[in-house]
Amino acid sequence: MTTEALKNEIKRLQEERDAVILAHNYERPEVQDVADYLGDSLDLSRTAARADAKVVVFCGVQFMAETTAMLSPAKTVLLPAPEAGCPLADMATDEQLRQKRAEYPDAVVISYVNTSAAVKAESDVCCTSANAVEVVKSVGKDRPILFVPDRNLGRYAAAQADREVILWEGWCPTHITVTLEDVARRRQEYPQAAFMAHPECAPEVLKAADRVAGTSGMLEYAGRADRREFIVGTESGMVYRLQKAYPDKAFYPATDHFICPTMKMTTLEKIRVALQEMKFVVRVPEPIQHKARRALEAMLAVQA
Ligand code: CIZ
Predict the structure, then answer these.
(1) In whole angstroms, what is the distance from residue 139 CA to residue 3 CA?
(2) Same fold, 3-85+263-284 and 89-171
């Protein structure tokens, strides 16, 4: 099938199934193009909960689809690429977290959304790259904080909130590849450009940024900044997302290899098959779901 024919078939199946298609900002351009909504994982989970549709097709990775399924219990959530995991999320298991908690029994556990539902279930509150600073600030000063699993985001949020946190030794293999030399090279090529860096990048790269933000913060900053050019310090799908949102501005990836292999596993063909065969349905078993939802709701209460 040609790309156009695939897109038309997806549209037809989508209507037949009463489905809404959500795609993360890191997805392939053609997948972004067929989505009804684009966003970060939290935006998308909230959109799914509000959507007037029976079925949600989630173009992203496992932990994102799990979060969506937990926040939309009455909907059928399909993950077209069920093999799409997250190496950062895999750096913390529920068993490891229980052991760590035993070492720090007074600690409040903040887990980044990039964790399995089982790890969220062992946590007190979740956070995203957009609200990590606020979530850290919300913890009483008399309580230690254990931040799981991304050490760079944890360190950044702690510094912004002026708090000490116990860091888990986890990192995103895609975000840590960008170096200060990459940034310097791009700045030389585009001297007028502002450099936006994702908080999962290394601390020295964050120090060199004009703006540190998750994908939703980058969209907001690029829209309101009076700069015309931006170097994008996050996964390459975001360059397409930004360029589409602001066609009169220019966006350049911080490196040519800023690619998350698992975010690229979703293809148009897999979306077609998911809708055709109503697979792969994401289900989070009770009581994990119940406990994990409490940590997600604790995060939503901080933001409110
Ligand atoms: O929360 C998300 O979707 C992630 C993992 C990153 C971001 O900044 O959008």
Answers:
(1) 49
(2) yes
Q: Return the CATH number of the domain spanning residue range 89-171.
A: 3.40.50.10800
Q: Is the CB of 113 under 6 A from ligand 1?
A: yes
- Among 3.30.390.50, 3.40.50.10800, 3.40.50.12780, 3.50.30.30, name the CATH number for the domain at 175-259: 3.40.50.10800
Q: Which residue carries 């908690």 as its tokens?
A: 101
Mutational test site, ligand 1, from 120, 128, 262, max ligand atoms within 8 Å of CB: 128
Q: Is 0.85 surpassed by the pTM of this model?
A: yes
| CA 209–ligand 1 middle distance (angstroms) | 18
Task: Express each pLDDT in 179-193 by its tens digit.
Answer: 999 999 999 999 999
Per-residue 3-state assignment (H helix, E strand, C coil) for 9-76: HHHHHHHHHCEEEEEECCCCHHHHHHCCEEECHHHHHHHHHHCCCCEEEEECCHHHHHHHHHHCCCCE
Q: Which atom of ligand 1 lies nearest, measured to the CA of 64?
A: 3
Note whether 232 and 253 are within 8 A (CB): yes
Q: What's the pLDDT tens digit per position in 249-289?
A: 999 999 999 999 999 999 999 999 999 999 999 999 999 99
**Ligand 1 neighbour 27 (Cβ under 6 A):** no
